[in-house]
Amino acid sequence: TLAERTNLAGVQHILLVLSGKGGVGKSTISTELALALRSAGKKVGILDVDLCGPSIPRMLRVQDSAVHQCDSGWVPVFVGQDKAIALMSIGFLLERPDDAVVWRGPKKNALIKQFVTDVAWGDLDFLIVDTPPGTSDEHISTVEALRPYQLLGAVLVTTPQ
């Protein structure tokens, strides 16, 4: 649809951050990458699709923020005084940040698709997508939803063991 094209139309590059297992530091890498790109003068967005452990809002100290609607969808939360990082996370949609999200595949996949299509990102140099751990359905949904757009690539986070 047209709305899908317009919400990501201003995004130059999309970067997925993936891992085969949990607890390896995907969210830390995503956050540090966003901060490094911002300090290099880039406009950056982070899409936190880690539905079971949305830690990026806490890492960027915006966990108490609310997401608002606009004509073209959800308005991301803007981070820092310069508002140079736009963030969308399931963490903003939960009653309490520590709530666990226990959803079956179809509902998770629908939310991921909605995150891809319904967030009004505006103009970004980079959109960093922090994915859940593993190689689940959610990854396939994320990649499928992003397939029509210009993907820069992926960062695969691993540990020595």
From TrEMBL:
<keyword id="KW-0547">Nucleotide-binding</keyword>
<keyword id="KW-0411">Iron-sulfur</keyword>
<dbReference type="GO" id="GO:0046872">
    <property type="term" value="F:metal ion binding"/>
</dbReference>
<dbReference type="GO" id="GO:0016226">
    <property type="term" value="P:iron-sulfur cluster assembly"/>
</dbReference>
<dbReference type="GO" id="GO:0005524">
    <property type="term" value="F:ATP binding"/>
</dbReference>
<dbReference type="GO" id="GO:0005829">
    <property type="term" value="C:cytosol"/>
</dbReference>
<keyword id="KW-0479">Metal-binding</keyword>
<keyword id="KW-0067">ATP-binding</keyword>
<keyword id="KW-0408">Iron</keyword>
<dbReference type="GO" id="GO:0051539">
    <property type="term" value="F:4 iron, 4 sulfur cluster binding"/>
</dbReference>
<dbReference type="Pfam" id="PF10609">
    <property type="entry name" value="ParA"/>
</dbReference>
<dbReference type="GO" id="GO:0140663">
    <property type="term" value="F:ATP-dependent FeS chaperone activity"/>
</dbReference>
<protein>
    <submittedName>
        <fullName>NUBP2 factor</fullName>
    </submittedName>
</protein>
<keyword id="KW-0004">4Fe-4S</keyword>
<dbReference type="InterPro" id="IPR000808">
    <property type="entry name" value="Mrp-like_CS"/>
</dbReference>
<dbReference type="InterPro" id="IPR033756">
    <property type="entry name" value="YlxH/NBP35"/>
</dbReference>
<dbReference type="InterPro" id="IPR027417">
    <property type="entry name" value="P-loop_NTPase"/>
</dbReference>
<dbReference type="InterPro" id="IPR019591">
    <property type="entry name" value="Mrp/NBP35_ATP-bd"/>
</dbReference>
